[in-house]
Design brief:
The complex is a heterodimer.
Chain A (H helix, E strand, L loop, with lengths): L1 H21 L19 H4 L11 H4 L2 H4 L8 H6 L13 H5 L15 H7 L1 H4 L1 H10 L10 E2 L3 E2 L9 E4 L8 H9 L22 H4 L20 H4 L6 E4 L4 E4 L7 H5 L8 H5 L2 H4 L2 H5 L8 H4 L4 H5 L8 E3 L6 H8 L10 E4 L5 E7 L5 E4 L6 E4 L16 H8 L4
Parallel strand pairs in A: 1-3
Antiparallel strand pairs in A: 2-3, 4-5, 6-7, 7-8, 8-9, 9-10
Chain B lengths: L4 H4 L4 E3 H4 L1 H4 L2 H20 L9 H11 L3 H28 L8 H23 L4 H15 L5 H9 L6 H32 L16 E3 H25 L25 H7 L4 H22 L17 H19 L1
Chain lengths: 408, 338
């Protein structure tokens, strides 16, 4: 009897083990061509779309960018060594995640130095705001940047700022600087956003390149794009004002109902072309992501004005005809194929030579912009040969807005 | 029925009162069973395990998640190892509390103590073979204790680790110790221990004249009981291994900050607790060695017992040993749980 019971117990245990072993989902292997190392993330994440056309899952897999334990079928273990949690582009981990000479920390000449540029950019360092506030309260003698959101170096500086030390509130004594550190450090690329859907964004590269607006709470967002809508820029910009008087952030109070009101906050002045466009239709990569130098203020890096595309009464905008099949303009157009840009096409270029690859000069000499996000085709005119009398030396947008602002 | 090989491993008959589960707690037999389980599951694991720093944790994950029943085999190995340490301690305590250490069994008690030490080293070396984040702290802290030994420390560390820090050489050495060196010693001492059990007259019992119950258990029945016990133990082990997976961590990384808390494996938690007092050599090496020495010295406190009390729980003539035993075990238990 005892023996029978023991044998039945063993049978039960074995059957239980067989049942438990058959319970987990069948492993789904993936051997990305880039790494050649089989990973099993798709066992659970088979429903995720390719993050972008430039990063197909079949080529990159998951682990190359996200880290994690590629063989583990236990969620906690598999995720335990992921870089940056769900966001490997956080600047603290961006180098192992997105870097590499063939990826985003390659040579300047190959236009692959994205990480170095971003880490020195004003959006990442927040050096402009920190310097301005410390200067305003007499903590530093001039508005040149000394401190950033994190320590960063620029070994070949063109701006005279070779490095930034990390801004450390513990080393500040002025009460306004302390308040600044508490209330005003929510908008650099390493800062977590303020609570609220209107501020919803990731950190690092994904702050801009992973659009998060209008997504459902807790919705997984697996997208990288260069077609960044203005709504993504607006998770930091145009949300309100930082007041020097009480060193606090005052959110805008108007309720935007439509693109016109939403685009800029009420104090902004703008023309119709501006709110029809998206920010990235005019503002360039180096303005947004930095040019590799550490700058002391947004004004140092932002240079595109109305004249960049429209020219002045004396000069047409600058153009360039694409001859090199590896031209960066073609690469950028391929990443966001809203137009079919070809060798031989003539595009506008900025004063610094950056391609405005979405703005072509057609064969008849007319100019045509294609919205990088909206895909709208928008013909527009030069200033030359129009009735405009604007002095060519006064070309900042506010001069243009004297006549061309939209009432709001 | 003519006795088989397995029958011949046992004496023809043994005294029945001492063969009862309530006397032996089945601990010695369970230890043999768990050792055999460990040999078999360990051999299976060796088909997949890769003893290199880059390959170790990955091969453990491969075994755990992707090899059919690999996870079960690994869990069986893990739980059999934890079980072996626990039943060995229970076995030792049982021997100490029933006077089984007294002459002529003193030497075998020391052999058993040697086996316990070997089991602890086997457990630790097996734990290290995971080579994942979960073991990093214990590997570094544990091996640094060797460095702390005055004079010979640095040299001994290099012999153990094959270098000045945990690396490929250290992993291969732990592997070699775990699957061969320590196993060889374990088998030799283990067989010797079992041999001495029979040579010393089987389970400790009073001399025949002083026995109140003279019933004896024939080996046919003993083997049958052992088989049933083994079946039940196998079933329990399978159930535990099915529902409680062995610990596993992300691959060890030199660059990433440690993800796991600084925590020794459970059987060294008492040493970790002691180390909080300061000096690594004193608290981490000398005191644990002193505990081992104290355990070894217990049979010397009361070398012989009243003959009629042998083979029963808590003989009066062994009070001092019993109190010392419980004192040591309680202290270690409290230090572990703190």
């Amino acid at each position: 009897m005892k023996r029978t019971l023991a044998a039945l117990f063993l049978l039960l245990a074995v059957l239980t083990a067989v049942w438990a072993n058959g319970r987990p989902p069948a492993p789904i292997p993936l051997t990305p061509t880039l790494t050649g190392e089989t990973e099993y993330c798709l066992t659970c994440h088979n429903d995720l779309p390719d993050i972008s056309a430039a990063h197909p899952t079949a080529v990159f897999g998951c682990v190359r960018c996200h880290g994690g334990e590629r063989l583990a079928l236990d969620a906690d273990l598999a995720h335990s060594s992921m870089r940056g949690g769900a966001n490997p582009s956080d600047l603290a981990v961006v180098e192992p995640s997105c870097g590499g000479s063939d990826c985003h920390s390659g040579a300047v000449s190959a236009d692959r130095d994205h990480i170095q540029r971003v880490q020195t950019s004003i959006q990442a360092t927040y050096a402009g705001a920190i310097a301005a506030v410390r200067y305003a309260f007499g903590v530093q003698p001039d508005p040149a940047a000394q401190l950033g959101a994190f320590a960063v170096q620029d070994t070949e500086t063109n701006t005279g700022v070779p490095y930034l030390d990390p801004f450390n509130p513990a080393q500040e004594t002025h009460p306004s600087i302390l308040k600044f550190s508490q209330n005003c450090l929510n908008c650099h690329l390493s800062a977590d956003p303020l609570p609220g859907g209107e501020y919803d964004r990731f950190t690092g590269c994904a702050a801009c390149h992973t659009p998060t607006q209008n997504r459902a709470p807790d919705q997984l967002t697996h997208t990288l794009t260069t077609a960044i809508p203005y709504t993504q820029c607006n998770t930091c910009h145009n949300r309100g004002n930082y007041s020097l008087r009480d060193m606090a952030f005052h959110p805008r109070t108007d309720e935007a109902n439509g693109r016109l009101q939403d685009y800029y906050q009420p104090i902004g002045q703008f023309t119709q072309c501006e709110w029809t466009l998206d920010c990235i239709d005019c503002h360039t990569r180096s303005e947004a992501m930095g040019d590799g130098d550490i700058h002391s203020s947004q004004a140092d890096i932002q240079y595109v004005q109305c004249r960049t595309c429209h020219g002045t009464i004396n000069e047409p905008p600058l153009t360039k005809t694409i001859t090199d099949p590896n031209d960066i303009a073609l690469r950028l157009a391929a990443l966001n194929p809203v137009i079919d840009l070809q060798v031989g096409d003539t595009i506008l270029v900025t004063e610094q030579g950056e391609p405005m690859w979405n703005i072509r000069q057609l064969d008849d000499g007319s100019l045509q912009l294609t919205g990088k996000v909206t895909e709208l085709t928008l013909p527009f005119s030069r200033v030359m040969d129009t009735a405009c009398e604007q002095n060519p030396d006064e070309q900042e947008s506010h001069f243009c807005h004297e006549c061309h602002a939209v009432e709001h | 029925m003519s006795p088989s090989f397995f029958h011949h491993l046992h004496p023809p008959t043994i005294p029945k009162p001492q063969a009862r589960f309530s006397h032996t707690l089945g601990a010695g037999g369970l230890a043999v069973f768990l050792s055999l389980t460990l040999l078999v599951t360990g051999a299976l694991e060796m088909f997949y395990y890769v003893p290199t720093p880059d390959g170790a944790a990955e091969s453990v994950q491969m075994l755990t998640f992707l090899v059919p029943y690999g996870g079960l085999v690994r869990n069986l190995h893990f739980w059999a190892a934890q079980g072996l340490l626990i039943v060995s301690i229970i076995h030792m305590v049982r021997v100490l509390l029933t006077g089984g250490y007294a002459a002529p069994r003193r030497f075998n008690y020391w052999l058993g103590l040697g086996l316990l030490a070997l089991i602890i080293f086997l457990d630790f070396s097996g734990y290290v073979l995971r080579w994942d984040e979960g073991i990093r702290w214990a590997l570094v802290a544990g091996t640094n204790l060797i460095k702390a030994i005055p004079g010979i420390g640095p040299g001994a560390y290099r012999i153990l680790m094959g270098g000045d820090a945990p690396g490929p050489a250290a992993l291969v050495r732990f592997y070699a110790w775990h699957i061969f060196g320590l196993i060889l010693l374990f088998i030799i001492v283990g067989v010797w221990h079992i041999f001495r059990v029979r040579r010393d007259g089987g389970i400790a019992a009073p001399p025949p004249k002083l026995r109140q119950n003279r019933e004896r258990l024939p080996r046919n029945e003993l083997v049958r009981i052992e088989v049933v016990a083994m079946i039940v133990a196998t079933a329990v082990l399978i159930l535990i291994s099915t529902f409680f997976p062995a610990p596993i961590g992300p691959a060890m990384s030199e660059t990433a900050p440690p993800t796991a808390e600084a925590r020794a494996p459970w059987f060294f938690l008492w040493v970790q607790q002691l180390l909080k007092n300061g000096d690594a050599f004193f608290w981490g090496v000398l005191i644990p060695l002193a505990v081992l020495g104290l355990l070894a010295a217990l049979p010397l406190i009361r070398p012989s017992l009243a003959p009629e009390e042998i083979g029963s729980w808590l003989p009066k003539s062994g009070r001092v040993v019993q109190i010392a035993t419980l004192g040591i075990i309680l202290t270690l238990l409290i230090l572990t749980l703190l």
